[in-house]
Specification:
241 residues; alpha/beta; Rossmann fold; SIR2/SIRT2 'Small Domain'; 2 domains; six-stranded parallel β-sheet; 37% helix; globular; binds 2'-O-acetyl adenosine-5-diphosphoribose
Length: 241
């Protein structure tokens, strides 16, 4: 059983707060078996981001990029939300003003039942037309490569944010607004290295929120957090909620 001397304090703060924000990263889905990016078996240890997750890579070799996303979709399709995803659904149900901001594209938060969800980096189960911009849901596994738009027959791309691209401005603005008006923020399973997501924790603190980090290992933000708990998301989060 996971132990930490300040779990009760966190429970009390979460119960008392009217406005709570949770920011998640790949670590929350690691407990479901989805690979992270920077850990020992992380995707960026085995693949070069610049070959697979940039607009230039897609322009150069769309089939290669689609094959990689197809492989990830096949892998994620076999995974289920875990106790941490479900505990956050419970927290949402009892909190007046709740926002879940995720960097994950795997769709597991939505599958678990989270509703006030901001997917900062997009969603691997959506595709976007490179010509007309139409975004549609697509759950085909495997996908027939290369996929084309039903409306205008141009090439489709994954509806995710690649390196060098801007985040959806509305999603980011809503996230910043939520962060700046929350009383408690929990930051779960993210290395905190990718911006602008990485600025959300300091923004919450600057606005006066109590910030709790939950991560298997220390991150560059651990010492700045009001409380940093080291542990697995699926063990720690359910104990807090
Ligand atoms: P990272 O792979 O960078 O970091 C995962 C974090 O989760 C690490 O800090 C781990 O210590 C922690 N972790 C691993 N297993 C855990 C567990 N069971 N419980 C709690 N923590 C655990 O993933 P992100 O921070 O999400 O962006 O990466 C941010 C962005 O970088 C991703 O959204 C992706 C990537 O490039 C894009 O593709 C645009």
């Amino acid at each position: 059983m996971f132990r930490h001397p300040r779990l009760q304090e966190v429970r009390d703060r979460l119960t008392a707060a009217h406005a709570v924000v949770v920011l998640t990263g790949a670590g929350i889905s690691a407990d479901s078996g989805v690979p992270t990016f920077r850990g020992a078996d992380g995707l960026w240890r085995n693949f070069r981001a610049e070959d697979l997750a940039t607009p230039e890579a897609f322009e150069r070799d769309p089939r290669l990029v689609w094959e990689w996303y197809n492989w990830r979709r096949e892998l994620i399709a076999t995974k289920q939300p875990n106790e941490a995803h479900y505990a956050l659904v419970q927290l949402e149900a009892r909190t007046r003003n709740f926002h879940l901001i995720t960097q994950n594209v795997d769709g597991l938060h939505r599958l678990a039942g989270s509703q006030h969800l901001h997917e900062l980096h997009g969603n691997i189960w959506k595709v976007r037309c490179t010509s007309c911009g139409l975004v549609t849901e697509n759950r085909d596994v495997p996908l027939s490569l290369r996929p084309h738009c039903r409306a205008c027959s141009a090439l489709l791309r994954p509806h995710v944010v690649w390196f060098g691209e801007s985040l959806d401005q509305q999603t980011l603005a809503e996230s910043v607004r939520a962060v700046e008006s929350c009383e408690v923020m929990m930051v779960v399973g993210t290395s905190g290295l990718v911006y602008p997501a990485a600025m959300l924790m300091p923004s919450a603190q600057a606005a006066g929120a109590f910030v709790i980090e939950i991560n298997l290992a220390p991150t560059p933000h651990s010492s700045a957090a009001d409380l940093s708990i080291q542990g697995r998301a699926k063990e720690v989060i359910p104990l807090l909620i």
